[in-house]
Amino acid sequence: MIELGGQDLIIMLMIIGILLGIYIFVLVDILKSEFHGYNKIIWILLVLFLPALGTILYLLIGRKQKVQK
Fold first, then answer.
1. pLDDT in tens, 39-51
2. Any domain includes 47
């Protein structure tokens, strides 16, 4: 078992919190935005089934695919 000190635990929880916040932001952004065709469903499935890769890909590629209002 890994022993974590007080500072290590706090840093780890902060990192997890930041990553979870980014993940939630991406899901909300996908759900609120409009996409052409089936892109919305594809992005949701990608982010849900491959959270780390899907989130990174959406931030790099997916945000540019949104329908501009």
1. 999 999 999 999 9
2. yes
